[in-house]
Amino acid sequence: MAAPAQLDPSHRPMAHRFRGFLPVVVDVETGGFDCDRHALLQVAAVFLRRNEQDRLERAHTVSLHVRPYEGSEMDPKSLEVNGIDPYHPLRAAWPEDQAMGRLFSEVRREVKLNLCKRAILVGHNAHFDLGFVHKAAERCGIKRNPFHPFSSLDTVSLAALAYGQTVLARAARAAGLEWDNDSAHSAAFDAEKTADLFCAVANHWQDHIGVPQAALQLPDPEELPPGS
């Protein structure tokens, strides 16, 4: 599903909530653990919304199958875990450059929609996902990478702080979220559960601890694009 042309009136721009960064929840499924050698096979991005109560909620998901790039390696153990057959004729996978181009286009649109400066990747063990995203962009010669080059928001750390759990399934259950073991290790499912976990921690903190008023501030009228 593509990003909308403008925010629904019930949603507020994310502009100041995270200091001008737009959190985008990403999960990748790969042919191994080394972004320099192993193939990117699936990538999913979940976009969030800030509602009228300034609470975060999940909006829509972009999920893409990716063809292994030429010369990439794949670890059979990783494929056993994620259950992906990289060369299955019905997989409807995109060439890596097209997949990353579409993903980044959606992210840039959401950044603009929310009046933010750039995206920041949210992930469970975020450095892993960020490494594969940046390496794929580098391989494809993509110059306009919307994600921060090294900063990320890691739900492993947030879940350890909030729930005493670091495994995604256990953290999700501790947060009161449903979990389906049969759907796990799909990029879309894992990204959506990571997004729900991130929202749960952020909303709980806001409700019980509070956030600075500057983070809840709405953009000045001068910042709004024409027609807003």
Short description, anyone?
The chain has 228 residues and is α/β, with parallel strands linked by helices. The chain is 36% helix and 21% strand. Helix 4 crosses helix 6 (187-208).
Output the keywords.
single chain, 228 residues, alpha/beta, 36% helix
How would you characterize the overall build of this protein?
- The chain is built from 7 helices and 6 strands.
- It has helices spanning 76-82, 96-113, 126-139, 155-163, 168-174, 187-208, 213-216; strands at residues 11-12, 21-30, 40-51, 56-65, 118-123, 147-154.
- 36% of the residues lie in helices and 21% in strands.
- The protein is an alpha/beta fold.
- Strands 1, 2, 3, 4, 5 and 6 form a 6-stranded mixed beta sheet that branches.
The poorly predicted ranges are: none
Helix content: 25-40%
Overall morphology: globular
Largest sheet: 6 strands, mixed
Find the count of extended strands (DSSP E, 2+ residues): 6
Distance between the termini: 22 Å
Secondary-structure map:
Elements: E1 11-12, E2 21-30, E3 40-51, E4 56-65, H1 76-82, H2 96-113, E5 118-123, H3 126-139, E6 147-154, H4 155-163, H5 168-174, H6 187-208, H7 213-216
Helix pairs in contact: 4-6
